[in-house]
Amino acid sequence: MSPSPHPFRFGYGTNGLADLRLDDALALLAELGYDGVGLTLDHMHLDPLAPDLGTRTRQVAHRLAALGLGVTVETGARYVLDPRRKHGPSLLDPDPDDRARRVDLLLRAVRIAADLGAHAVHCFSGITPPGTDEDTAWKRLTDSLTPVLAAAAAADVPLAIEPEPGHLLATLADFHRLRGALGDPGHLGLTLDIGHCQCLEPLPPADCVRDAGPWLRHVQIEDMRRGVHEHLPFGDGEIDFPPVLAALAATGYQGLTVVELPRHSHAGPHHAALSLPFLHRAAASATADTPPVAPPPGEPSATPEGSPT
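Predicted structure:
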C-alpha cells in the first residue's frame, strides 16, 4: 500500500458490515485500501461474551497485523447484552445489576483493546430511563465509568465516550460536564461523530472539530441532515466535508476516522467501496485548500450540492 498523501487514517465500522464474517470484512477493508477498522464487539464479530475470548482476540490481532489495519474497539452493538432491548442495559439503568453488566462489557472491551493494540475504546452514556431525574442519571454515569476509567488507565487505552442524540450525554457540552464531574481524568477522551455535529450541535461540524480537538480520541464520520439523526452515505446529507477534514488535520489527531453506516449493512461492501474514494477526494481538497475534485460518474461528490464550498 502506497503512503497516504494526507494526514488522515480512514477506517470503516464493522457495524456496517454485519452480514460478513469478521475475517472477510477485514480482508475487504484491506483490499479497498482502508487504514483500519472500527470493530464493534458483537455476537458475529469477536463476541465479547463467548468462550475462549483471549484466544479469539489473539487471532484477530494477528489478522489485523497481517493486513496492516489499525483498530478502534466500539461497544455500540444493539443486542449483545439483551436480545429484547436495543443498547440495553445501559450505564443508567435503575437496576444496579443491569448497570454492572454494561460495566463488565466495557471492562472486557478495554482488555480486548489492549490485546489488539487498539488506539481507543468507544462507549456512550445511554438514554435516561423513564422516571429517573437528571442528577441521579449523572451520578449513575459517573459511578459506572469510574472502574472502567481505572482499567483504561491501567491498560493505557483511552476511553472515548460519544455524545449521542437522545442520550443523557448528547452534546459536547455534556462531555465537558462529565469531565468536570469525574475530575478530568487523563484517560477519558471523546468520540466525535461528525454527523451528530450536523444533527444537533449549535456550531457547524468544522467548528465542533476545532473545539473538540484536545480531547479527540476517536472520530466517526458519515453524512447527515440538520435535526435528523439518520446516518447517510456521503453525498446524501448536508455536510461540507473538506472544511471538516481541514479542521481535523489542524488538531493533530492521529487516530482513525471511521465511516459509520450501520443501517446500510445490507449493502456494506458497496458503501465501503464508495466511501474511501470520497474521503480521499475530500481530504485532498482539505489539505490542498482547493475546490473538490469532480468525482467519476456514479460516485458522490465530496461536497453535496447546495452546500457552501
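Summary: The first strand starts at residue 9 and ends at 13.
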